[in-house]
Amino acid sequence: MKKLHDYLSLFKQSPLRDVSSESDSIIALFSKEAGQLMADAKFIEKRSSEPLNVVILGEVKAGKSSLINAILQDDVSPVDVTEATSCIVDVSFGEEPNASLLLDEQVVETGSREVVWEYYASQSKYIHENKQRAEIRLCLNSTALKNLHLVDTPGLETINASYENATVNFFNSSDVIIWVFNANHAGQSDVRERLSAVAKLGKPMIGVVSRIDEIGNEADAILNYYRNNYSLYFQKIMVFSSLWARIGLEVKDGDTPRSSGIKELLEYLKEIDEEVKRVKSESTLSSMYALALKDKALHELAKNRVDYLLNQILLFRNKCDYHRDSIGRTLKGLAEEWLENKFLAEEEEQVLAAINDSHSSSEINSMVKQAVSNDNINRRLEQMFALISSAYSSEWKNAVENIALELSKADELHLSFQKKIIAEVEGENITMPEMLIEGVKKGAAIGGAFGLVGGSIVVAMTAATMPALLVIVPFYALIGTLAGGIANLFGLPKNKEKLKRGVEKEFRRARADFGNHYMSEFQANLNNVMRSTVIELTDNFTKTAEMPPEAILQRYVESLIKYLKSLDETI
């Protein structure tokens, strides 16, 4: 089945089934579901190539074991051991013959079939008294078993609660059910209720009237009895004699005095097998197609998830860039205004007051020199940076809140897209796991998640970033000219008012010269700090959202696009 092979080969190429630890938790959730889908596909493939699964049931001593032995032309199951009628016997093909006994699904004995049967016979009384479920599994290198898998269930009278679920499971997984009647018991019991319950499974059923050799000339009458009373439940009802089958085998001649019925049964099983294979083929392709649709939806959800993460990173970075420029202008304006109006303003007031108080020129010149000293300049600049730092923290906290709000809106839009994909695939009667749906919903809360921690990130970044901005540039010589200019003012006769106006002019000139030179360095440092801020915020954003690195996400979405294209071509 080339189409089946194409599906399986393609499923193996899925990037969701080769996810490393680099993927985020939500993608890992997709990966888990993709792995389960692959397991389902392998099960469907295995089921499609399995031999015809035949389950045999009937009353105790109806001849079920004899029928199995006749089908396989081998003494697989003992026909003279009463206990054998109350255990499950599972017979399948195996290159190396082996047998095992399971009690309540636990293996307790292995070896040859003779050893296992002998062990079971010795323990059967204890097993039955303790109501344990016994199952004997036989693997035989038999040509017949390449096309048949036989399960002999316990006699109807011996089935108890410990066997009931197992028996139902065997029925559900069967391709055909053979119901064996004992010809000697015709009319002695009515099994309609049990037949009706099994028939509701919708499996093909064959009625086999066994031990026909024991009723003499009444064989035709017995067969007609079963056909008249039970044909409603069966596709075919036929007779069988293990004695005649064995005679025919021993003389190597199928023409015994009366037909054993085994040849007719095998031919009919072959017909059913061909029909089952046809149905299986159609069912397999239909199931694979359904899985492919589900796989497509799964990968579209994953792709949308990765696209969304990439878009959120891009949106976050763009918003950060916008706020970076805006905040940068604000901080620059604060620095310029402070340098123009606040820088050395107290020192200027002190000098003007000293002039009013008629301090000597030497005292005033000393005050000016102290004002333009490195220590005083650094102290005043630190005041400016305290203002800048506070504004930086406040502005970026507000920016983060605004960005988180924008991202939350994108979260809602993304979730609506994901829900749409889920709704579309469920419209094809394919149910997406509730765990995956809940994971999709939880995974859409990136904006909100970052909004909760963004403020604290900014506070931490302020403490880390401001020292990089607080760089004292060596332009103090420009301020130093202030002392010379003011000293020159005292060299000429002036009244106090003219002297004060001259001092004010010198301070203005000194502030302007210092500001012009200082702001160029401040702007360069501010640009570097702002770029680092965006990088740091973006990094913290991806960590908060538990995202893998952007480059990995980009490669991942490319592989998903490629896979979805191949999937579309295959579907």
Computed Rg: 45 Å
Proportion of residues in helical segments: 55-70%
**Overall mean pLDDT score?**
79
CATH-wise, what's the superfamily of the largest domain? P-loop containing nucleotide triphosphate hydrolases
Poorly predicted runs are none
Q: What's the domain count? A: 2
Total of DSSP H or I helical runs spanning 4+ residues: 17
**In terms of quaternary structure, what is this?**
single chain
What's the overall geometry? rod-shaped
Name the structural class.
alpha/beta
The separation of the N and C termini measures: 15 Å
What fraction of the residues are assigned to beta strands by DSSP? 5-15%
CATH arch. level architecture of the largest domain: 3-Layer(aba) Sandwich
Count of individual beta strands: 9
- What order do the SSEs take from the amino end to the carboxyl end, as H and E? HHEHEEEHEEHEHEHEHHHHHHHHHH
CATH class group of the largest domain: Alpha Beta
Biggest sheet, in brief? 9 strands, mixed
State the main characteristics.
alpha/beta, 571 residues, 2 domains, single chain, Rossmann fold
Describe the protein's architecture and organization.
The structure is a single chain. The chain is of the alpha/beta class. The chain has two domains: 52-287, P-loop containing nucleotide triphosphate hydrolases (Rossmann fold, 3-Layer(aba) Sandwich); 334-547, no CATH class. The chain has 17 helices and nine strands. It has helices at residues 2-12, 25-49, 64-72, 113-129, 161-173, 192-199, 219-230, 242-250, 262-341, 345-356, 361-371, 374-426, 434-442, 446-469, 476-489, 496-544, 550-570, and strands spanning 52-58, 88-93, 98-103, 106-111, 134-140, 148-152, 176-182, 205-210, 236-239. Strands 4-3-5-2-6-1-7-8-9 form a nine-stranded mixed β-sheet, with helices on both faces. A hairpin with a 2-residue loop joins strand 3 and strand 4 (106-111). Helix 2 (25-49) packs antiparallel against helix 13 (434-442), helix 11 runs antiparallel to helix 15 (476-489) and helix 12 (374-426) packs antiparallel against helix 14. The chain is rod-shaped.
